[in-house]
Specification:
single chain, 277 residues, mainly alpha, Arc Repressor Mutant, subunit A, Tetracycline Repressor, domain 2, 2 domains, 14 helices
Length: 277
């Protein structure tokens, strides 16, 4: 399920994102507004999405969580489209505003990536909000500014920095997305990862004799250092909170992919320095 941000009224959304709440709700009724505010509503919406996923998000669900009707929310937030924008930007406020670079840009980027990994696993619904249309809220810009603050010390030009931002973001979001989907798959299908793998991959020797000869490079890759496949008896371990095969593979992809990107940034720095000589 992909959600596109920025589908609500542009000006009202931007007013709400940047704290101009009175301008965003020009027709609000006068008088006290006990117990509700934009912030309270957005926090409740984030709690709904964290607990039940983006598919469960609705004005009604948020209202029920607050003990109110959906209609009671519209004085503060025009609708679900604007609410998604606010949720996305508010969640990003959890991320650090800056990173210490005294130990070098590489260590700072590792810290940034680890924070992003943990953030997306806390809020997997964030991965469903498309990057094609940014929210343009203050915390989104703040998160980008924090990353740019680290990349600024590398000396890369604007083009190199844009490439680094894209590559780093892809590694973090991609690997975290695999974990989020793995966890979602168990809930959606009723099958643990071990049960699924043994049902499918366990049939390969019978349905695809000579698999290694037909796909020699795939067989080599599986045989050389791949994360250990789940045992059939591992279903209980997964149910008890054990780390699944896909989660281990995703973590390995995260760490290895990050290292490759950092090596690439280091090479780009060296090339830029060589051109200046």
């Amino acid at each position: 399920m992909t959600v596109f941000a920025g589908q609500g009224d542009p000006r009202r959304s931007m007013d709400l994102l940047w704290g101009r709440t009175e301008a965003a709700a020009p027709h609000a009724r006068p008088g006290p507004r006990p117990g509700l505010s934009v912030e309270v509503i957005v926090d409740a919406a984030i709690a709904v999405a964290d607990a039940e996923g983006m598919a469960a998000l609705s004005m009604r669900a948020v209202g029920e969580r607050l003990g109110r009707t959906a209609m009671a929310l519209y004085t503060y937030v025009p609708g679900k489209a604007e609410l998604v924008d606010l949720m996305y930007d508010r969640a990003l406020a959890e991320l650090p505003a800056a990173y210490e670079v005294s130990a070098g840009w590489r260590a700072a980027l590792v810290a940034w990536a680890e924070d992003g990994w943990a953030f997306y696993l806390r809020h997997p619904w964030m991965l469903q909000v498309s990057q094609a249309r940014p929210v343009l809220g203050p915390n989104e810009y703040g998160a980008l500014e924090a990353l740019l603050g680290v990349l600024a010390v590398t000396g890369l030009d604007a083009r190199g920095v844009r490439r680094a931002v894209a590559a780093l973001s892809s590694v973090v979001r991609g690997a975290a997305g695999t974990v989020a989907e793995s966890r979602q798959a168990v809930r959606a299908t009723g099958l643990t990862e071990a049960q699924w793998w043994h049902g499918r991959a366990g049939a390969l020797p019978e349905v695809a004799p000579g698999f290694a000869e037909r796909f020699p490079r795939v067989a080599w890759l599986d045989a050389e250092g791949a994360p250990e496949m789940p045992e059939a008896a591992g279903a209980a371990g997964e149910a008890d909170g054990g780390v699944s095969y896909l989660e281990r593979a995703a973590r390995e992809a995260f760490e290895g992919g990050l290292e490759l990107v950092l090596d690439g940034i280091e090479a780009a720095i060296a090339r830029a320095a060589a051109r200046k000589r």
